Amino acid sequence: MFEQIHPRTRVIAGAGAHRRLPELLSELHAGPVFVVCGRTVAAGPQLAALREVLGDAIVGVFDGIRPQAGLNHLGTAAAAIRASGAEAVLSLGGGAAIDTAKYLILLLTVDGPLDDFQVPKGRGRQGRPARALQGTAYPHVAVPTTTGSSSEVMPWAGVRDERRGEKVLFRDPLLVPDAAVLDPLLVVPTGAALTASSGVTAVARAVEATYSRDRQPIADGYALQALHLLRTGLPRSIETPDDLDARLDAQVGALLSGIAADNAMVSLTHAIGHAVGGRYALQHGVAHRIFLPPVAGRLLPAEGSRVARVAEALGAEGRDADAVTAALRTMLAPLPIPTRLRDVHVDRADLPAIAKATSVEPMMTYAPREVSVEEIEELLESCW
Question: Are residues 129 and 254 in the same domain?
Answer without folding.
Answer: no
